[in-house]
Design goal:
Blueprint (H helix, E strand, L loop, with lengths): L4 E6 L1 H5 L3 H10 L3 E8 L3 H7 L9 H8 L4 E7 L3 H9 L12 H5 L8 E3 L3 H11 L7
Antiparallel strand pairs: 1-3, 1-4, 2-3
The protein binds adenosine-3',5'-cyclic-monophosphate.
Length: 139
């Protein structure tokens, strides 16, 4: 059975460009309930740990640099079929390939600076949510 929670980050590019409000509005309007949320900044160590799965990729250094350059909004979202529905809402990793109306199509500028993160599995949603939030910050 598909899980009902996913984890997201509004990334530094979208925060810098003033899109927090519009993105949260679209997330709410799409039926997701925010069950944890904060404005925070990842340290280099945080980002290296969070993205450890990508550490052999050529873009890893760039990714860590980008994700640590300013604040992000971290949140846990609840909805039936949350992981898959949220990935549909945000669109393809590369905004040039993202469907019309998706969050990345509207607010992302490149494959690296792509505005939002969405967990890719129920298992990772749990791991990523717990990375950013203690139990008593999750409602
Ligand atoms: P996301 O899918 O949220 O998590 C992994 C991130 O790595 C991805 O978003 C992009 O920000 C980044 N990424 C993926 N592919 C590339 C690439 N080819 N060049 C630069 N960054 C990338």
């Amino acid at each position: 059975m598909a899980g009902n929670r996913t984890f997201t980050m509004i990334k530094p590019d979208a925060v810098e460009n003033g899109h927090i409000g519009a993105i949260l509005e679209q997330i709410n309007a799409s039926g997701f309930r925010i069950v944890a949320m904060k404005l925070t900044q990842m340290s280099k160590r945080d980002a290296e740990q969070f993205y450890a799965i990508h550490k052999e990729r050529p873009f890893f250094g760039e990714l860590v640099e980008f994700m640590t350059r300013g604040p992000i909004v971290a949140a846990i979202l609840e909805k039936d079929n949350a992981v898959e529905d949220f990935r549909t809402l945000i669109g393809a990793t590369n905004p040039a390939e993202a469907a019309e109306g998706t969050i990345r199509k509207k607010y992302a500028t490149s494959i690296g600076e792509n505005a939002v993160h969405g967990s890719d599995s129920d298992e990772n949603a749990l791991i990523e949510g717990d990375f950013h939030f203690s139990g008593r910050e999750q409602f």
